[in-house]
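User: You have something folded?
Assistant:
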Amino acid sequence: MMEMTINKLPAPTWNRLGMNESRISNITIDAAWKAQIQVSNAAITRENTEIDWNSLNSGLGQDMDILGESIEADSFHVEKNAHENEPVVYRLQYQDTHNYYNKVQIYAEENSESSYIFITANESGCAGLSALQVKVYAKKGAKVRLYFAQLLDKSYDVLHDVGGFCEEDASVETVYISLGGNRVYAGGLIDLQGQRSGMDAKIGYLGRDDQHIDMNYVARHQGAKTESNMEISGILRDQAFKLFRGTIDFLHGSSGAVGNEKEDVLLIGDDVVNQTIPLILCAEEDVEGNHGATIGKLDESMLFYLGSRGISKEEAERIIAKAKIDALCSLIPDEAVRKEVEVYHGGL
């Protein structure tokens, strides 16, 4: 069994807040689940690229690498100048009660474009741990897009992790939709090493019952004129707990870099716990960093308007929560997966 320290801030805040990192215990891994993989683009092969993948940092951190060191990765190699065709679909549909760890490594050659959809779900009556780590190395001018749909039952704990490295003019985009699970730990860290490289992360979540959601996303600006954007949109209801850490880190040499972070949280109920740490670190003068948060409940005038048309408060809350998730779901480039997310969300 492993004791893990994950989702650690790049620079600590007040220790008394208890938000600098998360510690979890008694973590074990049984094996990798056999993923269902659909590759329709001939320019994407399953070739393994020999680089030091452990040198790529990730959102959950080094302990996630250690936990999965015995797991063989599923590799994807994108040819130079490859144009985006159909996305790769990577499905983890758990069918028994075990703790599974899957590892994905994507090596995108120069000026290539590729997209990947990751679905985690389970059959009825199953339970365990869903651990998934995706690492990306984006060569000069490469564009990589990652889409995650986390549709697990409450019988699952979740460790979902992203790490990326971008050369000049490369970018990694992430859309992460978290709707299920019990204790959910998710994170992403993108190293913007090359000039004009970019990161875009759009995160959506629904916390319900006594669900625990813990997230850590980092844009590490190293190259000049790099850009990052983080948009977080969530709903908390019942007795749900959420902690979001979002860091824009301007390192020496990132002159002209721009980083933006925005969070919008809808609180439904009086017993939710919402914690956020927006952090901007600066070791360079000519940079621009912005962060903002909108945290609140449903507007009373809106509830009155909807009530006057026969819509109850509970139904109004459901409609507005669904609209927030649907906005992110619409970004997934696969109609069948979008429908799957909509069906799952509609049943909550």
